[in-house]
């Protein structure tokens, strides 16, 4: 019985999750469809003969880069592709240089190269702008450089491995981007626009309900006014979502009413001003609530006296 109750609770939560945003259900099907497409490498012999076991990199690429919005997916694909290409070239160069230095010096030189580059790239990740937009690419850069430079393969095998790895990653990334854009796309820029507009509307609803509640302009719709008076609280914690959507929106191509070089930074400025206003609204709301409680307690005391 306990297991059945838990199962029912999970199903209810899943239903609510889908009802809150039906795009989540569509996204789940899109991920499954994209993975099924790249899995064809294993079922068609000509494709498998061309890449062999490296075809798994295409599947892994789809799994790790496919995000909810188009901008987030494009950002991860470009980060992964560029990082793999650059790190592969640098890794091969480091391997070649160490190989020419002799067997005694080669492991020492490779260790120094890996240490310096990994330390440098890790430090770069602490910069806020790099952390926000290129953190995933920097991680892939460290991983690919380390794999290539200390792989121990012969030179021709190393080039073949790099070629197959880059090719399968490009195929996986291209598949993920195509499915994400052409099958029920979710645009981060549109979500950011709607989020900022809804936050401003919540503040407007608060100010409208403010008069009804505290100055008794109207007496009807008590429950709706109460919900409006609490709606501003979601604005206080929306900064992280706004910044994430803005970073993703910068990767997106032209779509709908949003053009290239759209002023996404202005959205963040408007969102920041809206949030500052909501803090003042919260202070005002708390002050008036305390005053009302005092008035009610005084009235209660006077009645009993």
UniProtKB/TrEMBL annotation:
Q: Keywords in UniProt for this one?
A: Ion channel, Ion transport, Membrane, Transmembrane, Transmembrane helix, Transport
Q: Where are the transmembrane segments?
A: 25-45, 51-70, 77-95, 107-127, 134-154, 166-188
Q: How does it sit in the membrane?
A: Multi-pass membrane protein
Q: What name goes with this protein?
A: Aluminum-activated malate transporter
Question: Which InterPro entries does the protein's record reference?
Answer: ALMT
The record's listing under PANTHER family reads:
ALUMINUM-ACTIVATED MALATE TRANSPORTER 10 (PTHR31086)
* GO CC, any one term: membrane
Entry annotated with the keyword Transmembrane helix: yes
Which branch of life, at top level?
Eukaryota
- Tell me the compartments it is located in: Membrane
**Keyword Transmembrane helix belongs to the record:** yes
Q: Where mainly located?
A: membrane
GO biological-process terms attached to the record: malate transport; monoatomic ion transmembrane transport
Similarity comment: family membership: Belongs to the aromatic acid exporter (TC 2.A.85) family.
Against Pfam families, the record matches this protein to:
ALMT
């Amino acid at each position: 019985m306990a297991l059945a109750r838990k199962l029912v609770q999970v199903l209810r939560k899943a239903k609510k999750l889908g009802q809150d945003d039906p795009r989540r259900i569509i996204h789940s099907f899109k991920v499954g469809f994209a993975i099924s497409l790249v899995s064809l490498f294993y079922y068609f012999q000509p494709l498998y003969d061309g890449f062999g076991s490296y075809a798994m990199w295409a599947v892994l690429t789809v799994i790790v880069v496919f995000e909810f919005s188009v901008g987030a997916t494009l950002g991860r694909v470009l980060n992964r592709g560029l990082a793999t290409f650059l790190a592969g070239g640098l890794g091969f160069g480091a391997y070649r240089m160490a190989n020419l230095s002799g067997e005694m010096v080669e492991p020492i030189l490779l260790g120094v190269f890996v240490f310096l580059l990994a330390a440098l790239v890790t430090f770069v990740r602490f910069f806020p702008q790099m952390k926000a937009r290129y953190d995933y690419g920097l991680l892939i850069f460290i991983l690919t450089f380390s794999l290539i430079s200390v792989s121990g393969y012969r030179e021709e095998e190393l080039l073949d491995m790099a070629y197959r790895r880059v090719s399968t990653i490009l195929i996986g990334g291209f598949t993920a981007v195509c499915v994400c854009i052409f099958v029920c796309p979710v645009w981060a820029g549109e979500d950011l626009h709607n989020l900022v507009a809804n936050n401003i509307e919540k503040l407007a609803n608060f100010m409208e309900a403010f008069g009804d509640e505290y100055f008794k302009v109207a007496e009807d719709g008590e429950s709706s006014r109460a919900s409006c008076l609490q709606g501003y609280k979601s604005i206080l914690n929306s900064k992280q979502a706004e910044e994430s959507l803005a970073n993703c929106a910068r990767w997106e191509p032209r779509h709908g009413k949003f053009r290239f070089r759209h002023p996404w930074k202005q959205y963040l400025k408007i969102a920041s001003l809206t949030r500052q206003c909501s803090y003042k609204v919260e202070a005002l709301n708390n002050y008036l609530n305390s005053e009302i409680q005092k008035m009610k307690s005084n009235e209660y005391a006077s009645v009993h006296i």
